[in-house]
Design brief:
This protein is mainly alpha-helical and about 290 residues long. It has one domain: MetI-like fold. It has 13 helices and two strands. It has a two-stranded antiparallel sheet. A hairpin with a 6-residue loop joins strand 1 and strand 2. The longest helix is centred in the N-terminal third of the chain and has 33 residues.
Length: about 290
């Protein structure tokens, strides 16, 4: 038994090293830097307590970025989740070309967000963008897709929906395929129609998939910053200034590394309880 334990520990060492270097060390280093003031030129470090947190909480741009991010998450998730479920129900029917269509839907998720951002920047350019050229040719008028503060955030959200819907569709499709066929056969005997089957069988059996999709999408969207960086630079008028981009800009454009670290800690302290609450409450309904 002792030999097996030693063998197991040997195999765990690479994973421990990986998580220590790329997860645990950055986490604790970030907390440390959030409590200090670093002098980049001299290399001196001074402990300042919670001053960086105070500065972050009194940074109006940071507060605005939190609001922008949660609006971005809301408008993205209320579309991507039901849309993915609809696609999954469609692909479950196995029509001709279903696998090809699913593959095409999944490709954007495999594509780098930098590439996606560059492509959509060309498509949505106000002057020479492909979309505006098409609209102009059809005499439908042009739009300031990325230069209008009221349009920019929904446009960014639409791009994220397009890039994620294939992945979440596959998750829902896997959940649908895992539902025992006997449930539907029994409902046929009871005379249930398609709507009743969806409400009383399909949706309850997909609770765990909904939970996984919701949590992973929420965490991923909170961390999003590439669309703001590549497509809009947080504009116009900070209407697409997502949290991730604001922290990036604070650290590498304004060189306020300690303040950026404090912002990261604050966001983690905000996200973690929300995720735990969702997991607990949703988990209770799954177990019920």
């Amino acid at each position: 038994m002792q030999k097996r334990t030693k063998t197991a520990l040997i195999f765990l060492i690479p994973a421990f090293i990986y998580f220590s270097v790329f997860y645990f060390y950055p986490l604790f280093a970030n907390i440390y830097y959030s409590l200090t003031k670093s002098m980049l030129l001299s290399g001196d470090v001074a402990f300042v307590g919670f001053k960086n947190f105070y500065d972050a909480l009194h940074d109006q741009s940071f507060i605005n970025s939190v609001s922008v991010t949660f609006r971005f998450i809301l408008m993205t998730m209320i579309i991507v989740i039901p849309l993915s479920l609809g696609f999954a129900l469609l692909f479950e029917s196995s029509f001709v070309g279903a696998k090809f269509a699913l593959g095409m839907l999944y490709i954007p998720y495999l594509t780098s967000m930098v590439v996606i951002g560059l492509i959509w920047s060309v498509i949505l350019n106000s002057d020479l963008g492909v979309l505006n050229l098409v609209l102009s040719a059809l005499n439908l008028g042009t739009q300031e897709w990325l230069n209008n503060p009221k349009q920019a955030l929904p446009v960014i959200s639409g791009i994220l929906i397009w890039s994620r819907v294939g992945y979440t569709t596959i998750l829902f499709l896997a959940g649908l395929n895992a539902i025992p066929r006997e449930f539907y056969e029994s409902s046929d005997i009871d005379g249930a129609n398609r709507t009743q089957k969806f409400i009383w069988i399909t949706l309850p059996q997909l609770k765990q998939v909904f939970l996984f999709v919701f949590l992973t999408s929420f965490i991923s969207l909170v961390q999003s910053f590439a669309p703001s960086l590549i497509i809009t630079r947080g504009g116009p008028q900070e209407s697409t200034n997502l949290i991730g981009y604001h922290i990036y800009r604070t650290a590498f454009a304004y060189f306020e590394l300690n303040k950026a670290s404090a912002m990261s800690v604050l966001i983690s302290l905000l996200i973690f309880p929300i995720a735990l609450f969702i997991l607990k409450k949703w988990g209770e309904t799954v177990d019920a």
